TrEMBL record:
InterPro entries on file: IF-2B-related, IF-M1Pi, IF_2B-like_C, Initiation_fac_2B_a/b/d, M1Pi_N, NagB/RpiA_transferase-like
Gene transcribed to yield this protein: mtnA
Binding site residues for substrate: R50, G51, A52, R93, Q202, N253, K254
Keyword annotations from UniProtKB, A to Z: Amino-acid biosynthesis, Isomerase, Methionine biosynthesis
Family under the similarity heading: Belongs to the EIF-2B alpha/beta/delta subunits family. MtnA subfamily.
Positions marked as site (Transition state stabilizer): C163
Species whose genome carries this gene: Pegethrix bostrychoides GSE-TBD4-15B
Biological role stated in the UniProt entry: Catalyzes the interconversion of methylthioribose-1-phosphate (MTR-1-P) into methylthioribulose-1-phosphate (MTRu-1-P).
A single BP term in Gene Ontology: L-methionine salvage from methylthioadenosine
Pathway in which the depicted protein is active: Amino-acid biosynthesis; L-methionine biosynthesis via salvage pathway; L-methionine from S-methyl-5-thio-alpha-D-ribose 1-phosphate: step 1/6
Catalytic activity: 5-(methylsulfanyl)-alpha-D-ribose 1-phosphate = 5-(methylsulfanyl)-D-ribulose 1-phosphate
Protein name stated in the entry: Methylthioribose-1-phosphate isomerase
Length: 352
């Protein structure tokens, strides 16, 4: 089957990285050219590029760009300076573990490559491009496994998703939206309900945009409408992405995912998490220790330039929450769909 999605949010072009500027979608489609590591760090922080796997790919290229800027032929000095490059990128966003996974893989490659500094730099570019290509193949595999894991009835499913775990959040195709794409191509999708996803509206701006590009029927709802839709029998299954999954299956994803899992359970609706193995942090036994990013309060006290609450209000803006494993029907990775408790069996595969 030929898989669709022509959306590639991070890619290498000639001598620089090109990013789709996700802050401007859906109103304008703009490409940002990144040639310096500092600019890549800013692009990740300001969410020009966002979504756990896409952040990982962007960070891998950021590592190469940082390596390219180091002006020494001395291997030890080069490797020491690469640690500073890595640190700069690590400080961009705390929750998505793919960022740290990609940085560590690039550092390990640098250390293990024998030869001159210029040959290490060349290998780093190839490695970043490999991580980029692997992520697309991984998402396509997640889509196929997810399709097989979806409930057999009804023949045409009404799925619901939160945030954007689509092509824009990966190197291409998407994780949870990859499952939706595969269902659409297999004629198993009636429609997708997309939560708008307050406060940054990734569901409204990005998931709906991807669906409209490809003619996938999409109905936008506000986050608070999901329970009502479930009660009315409009939703057959929920599929979401993940930013970090602990070894026991507890899953951090965009704020609002936890409440969605609770209402899914209350309505006996299967709740799937779709993510690559690089999103699993086997170092964490449970989700309690997953760092939760808190973002600027302006994301919640204003819409556009309009203030939506009185002066004197205080704010709390966590960007992610943790869904306990017992609310998750199955976790879908490139290695198949499994119950959260079985995830630990994949540990050896991640270590290679
Ligand atoms: O803050 P964001 O937009 O980077 O958050 C994105 C999400 O929470 C996604 O669901 C997650 O990263 C999975 S992307 C395939």
């Amino acid at each position: 089957m030929s898989l669709s999605s022509q959306v590639f949010p991070v890619f290498w072009y000639q001598d620089h990285v090109r990013l789709i500027d996700q802050n401007h979608l859906p109103n304008s489609y703009e490409i940002v050219e990144i040639s310096r590591c500092d600019d890549m760090a800013t692009a990740i922080k300001t969410m020009i590029v966002r979504g756990a796997p896409a952040i990982g790919v962007a960070a891998a290229y950021g590592m190469y760009l940082g390596a390219r800027e180091i002006a020494t032929d001395d291997r030890d000095s080069f490797l020491a300076q690469m640690e500073s490059v890595a640190q700069k990128l690590r400080e961009t966003r705390p929750t998505a573990v793919n960022l740290f996974w990609a940085i560590d893989r690039m550092l390990k490659t640098a250390r293990q490559t024998v030869g001159s500094v210029s040959s290490i730099k060349a290998v780093l570019l190839t490695t970043a491009q490999t991580i980029n290509a692997e992520d697309i193949a991984t998402c396509e595999a997640i889509g196929e496994h997810g399709l097989a894991a979806l409930p057999p009835q009804p023949a045409q499913l009404r799925l619901l998703t939160h945030c954007n775990a689509g092509a824009l959040a990966t190197a291409g195709y998407g994780t949870s939206l990859g499952v939706v794409r595969s269902a659409w191509q297999a004629n198993r999708l009636e429609r997708l309900y997309a939560d708008e996803t307050r406060p940054r509206l990734q569901g409204a701006r990005l998931t709906a945009w991807e669906c409209v590009q490809e003619g996938i029927p999409v109905t936008l709802i506000t986050d608070s409408m999901a329970a009502h839709c479930m009660k009315r029998g409009l939703v057959d299954a929920v599929v979401v992405g993940a930013d970090r999954i602990a070894a026991n299956g507890d899953t951090a994803n965009k704020i609002g995912t936890y409440s969605l899992a609770l209402v899914s359970k209350a309505h006996s609706i299967p709740f799937f998490v779709a993510a690559p193995l690089s999103t699993v942090d086997f170092k964490l036994e449970t989700g309690v220790a997953i760092p939760i990013e808190e973002r600027d309060p302006s994301e919640i006290y204003q819409i556009g330039q309009t203030l939506i609450c009185p002066a004197g209000t205080e704010f709390y803006n966590p960007a992610f929450d943790v869904t306990p494993a017992d609310l998750i029907t199955a976790i879908i990775t490139e290695h198949g769909a499994m119950q959260p408790a079985d995830l630990i069996q994949l540990k050896a595969k991640q270590l290679g």
